[in-house]
Amino acid sequence: MSLYPSDRWLSAALFGAAVLVGALLLGIVVTTLIGAWPVLAEIDVALFSVDWQPSTGHFGMLAMLVATLAVSLLALLLAAPLAVALAAWLNLYAPGVIQGPLRALYELLAGIPSVVYGLWGLIVLVPLVNQIAPPGASLITAALVVALMILPYGLLLADSDFRQVPTAQKQAAIATGLSPWGTFRCVYWPLCRGGIGRGMVLQFGRALGETMAVLMVAGNVVQLPTSLVAPVRTLTANIALEMGYASGDHRAALYLSGLLLLAIALGVMRLATGRGTP
Amino acid sequence: MRSLIVRYPVADGVFRVLTTLTTAAVLGIVLWLLLGLVLKGAGDLSLAYLLTPPEASGLGGGISSVLVNTLLILSVCLLVVIPLGLACALFLTEMVSPASVAGQATGYCLDVLSGVPSIVFALFGYQLFAITLGLGFSIVAGGLTLACMALPLMVRTSQQAVLRVPADLVEAGHALSLSRAGMLRRVILPSARHGIAAGIVLSIGRTLAETAVLLFTAGYVLRLPGSLLDSGRALSVHIYDLAMHVPGGQPRAASAALVLVALIILTNLAVHRLLKTHRD
To answer: A72 near A147, Cβ under 8 Å?
Structure first.
């Protein structure tokens, strides 16, 4: 033990903070479980029915679950190749003087609030898609906006992977006279693809949990998406829309959908980092 | 010399053109995004816009009360997240080794927390702070929920800052037989202060950007709050409400969005400046 009495108080305080972090995680899981408790027995109905009509006690979440996965998967498919291409250009072709400012710009884009991306989608993209396929607010619009949101994160992760390639390997590439494509194919990609893959899975998790942008541009109609331009409602948007007035079993059903989101998000994170379950 | 160089004539050209074009296209979209917002919203921006209260659900007047609410929610959040985050970071760096059970468990909890979707934090905060603790839709409830969300970020950034404190300083402290409290106060915190400040500013940026958490914890009320237990609408919520619920509100939402983006740019610049000082 320490020689100083004051240290005991300090150690207790620091330990207390760490315990609080654990308690917070436990609290989130327990609170969501308790909130969902009244309808927890009906989880099979919730998962395998598309009939979401809270006023008559029908809480089928399948349509919104499918919409959530569809928006996230599409967004990831759009964003992932772009992220790698932009990171490659930044590291292999960008002139030295613009690398710093470009990175700062990408960091800024990563910090722009989702409600701002959603607003842009609403003002610009929705009218544009509306001209091709009304009403404009749809699965593909949401996927485009979410893709634009997760792109800077994926790009910065890939960039940091590229930058961590050991100097010896980079010098070897220069000494062998590898062209940029050769450097990418023979050095960067083999060394970084694992990290980039994990980074993209993390971005998929972020897309699943995204609420505001999707709420603003997806159209919010509860239905199984039949086409790319069909309006859909995701689980997150549903909670944001209905939590304000829900009560009783309806509210419990919203907590159940939150529990579902939590489970999926943590499962995805486990896939990406090996953490998420003990 | 040229003959030594390994070339893929076709693939090189395709790769160069593809990556250059995608970069140009994405930068074009970013420009489109910013221009779109500026064209819609810049007309209303002025000092008066920042200093007058909103009228007619935000269609007239400015955003002064919204800025005050945002500042109050942010203050509540920081008041909780700074001491708690710093204490947890110091626990991880000073009290336990990363390999120990306590270190592993805390790190594990932080990683999982950082993966929890923000809407789930909202459900949690609504139940715990608004209902169980009886705070209702209020600035305190919103700030506390945001603090829970920002905690992992604050801990991890402070932890990075403390880990960068030079080992010779720490050893000198030990050689002087400083107490743990003395060590923190005289060696570690002064040396890591710029990095910790960067973590605080990062948390501010994250908090300013958050909307979903506030929808049903801090609520929508537009006027100036009488106390911290009143509901108050933050800037991000104001943007959402104007865009979705107020007919003809989209240009006004774009004005508010420009203010929010300007605040985010400021936090980014501050983080860059602080981290640069921290590394030097």
So the answer is: no
